[in-house]
Amino acid sequence: MDFNEFNFDAGLLEGLSSMGFNKATPIQEQSIPVILSGKDIIACAQTGTGKTAAYVLPILHKILSAKKRHLNTLILCPTRELALQIDQQIEGFAYFISVSSIAIYGGGDGVVWEQQKKALKEGADIIIATPGRLIAQLQSGTVKLEHLEHLVLDEADRMLDMGFYSDLIKIISYLPANRQTILFSATMPPNMRKLAGQILKDPEQVNIAISKPAEGILQQAYVLYDNQKVNLIKHILSETKFNSVIIFASTKDNVKALDRELRAKGFSVEAFHSDLEQVEREAIMRRFKSRSLQIIIGTDILSRGIDVEGIDLVINFDAPPDPEDYIHRIGRTARAETTGTAITFINEKDQRKFYSVEELIGKEIPKLPLPADLGEGPAYEPLKKRTFIKPGGGDRNKRPFKKR
User: What is the maximum span of the chain, computed from C-alpha positions, in angstroms?
Assistant: First the structure.
């Protein structure tokens, strides 16, 4: 479907054309008419499907058509990286029209706080915010939301995973009841359905099936013990030339520990985590995008908050907690029709989890032999019942995997 068919404002169409947007993606084609109609919507679509444009474009068109201009739209998202990314996209789409936006996020110093406060007082059509920082601004009395017309929750499932449920409910208590609510989520777990039931009115539902990994991704895996992981990753990075690498670990502590190990071996690496100041995180991302930094290590938040082309290797140091998280992680490589490699480390306890990944994508991922000097790893037997016994626990602590 061509964007001209939506009858968008001429200036908005000019912005789309300048950015190379011609044909609507499936999520855009199905969501834009619903949002233009004013109905609430639940859209289930993953990162990389064009979901940001799916809600931003109709909102921009409606702002241009409004009789009075005021703070019109609040977009809530889980991370400052995503907030900045959305703000940049709005800036591109709105290049030829008079619509303003501002990103509100934590992690900065007092200067950043005052800059955000001043910008809010001066006014903007659209606010993109992380929940914690927005609540702080609301409590200071800086933001007035009584005339708000659109509330967007982007990556709502990730916000709930990060513990923002009560923050979201508190923010919504500041909003007018008569508004359009737009909820985008990659997954729809029970807590998401509960939230949707509380804040949406008779919503339309749009579901875009999770896409398979790009054809350009070479997917591989190693079955190994935890104490073999660090040496294997050093081997991979030393023996093969990769220019741009993302490594995903399960926790912030794992990210920091692996960062120390790789630094000690002289690799060009930075850990990317929530303990860093915002200016530090932005500096790391600039270096990574400019290729002056080769390797970046982070948790799953990074899988949705980074938009960098040309990444040629993704390593899952820890297997992803959910099959759909695997899609998000490895989707950082082979973007824009390029090629890339995705390698996953599978320890004994994660075998059933990784088997669920293979079920989701509909194929078995090749398991490579470990380098000889690392010794042998465990057999890959994801459907085998396994017994985990705590020290001194006897047979009381058996916890077999269940077959589907």
Answer: 73
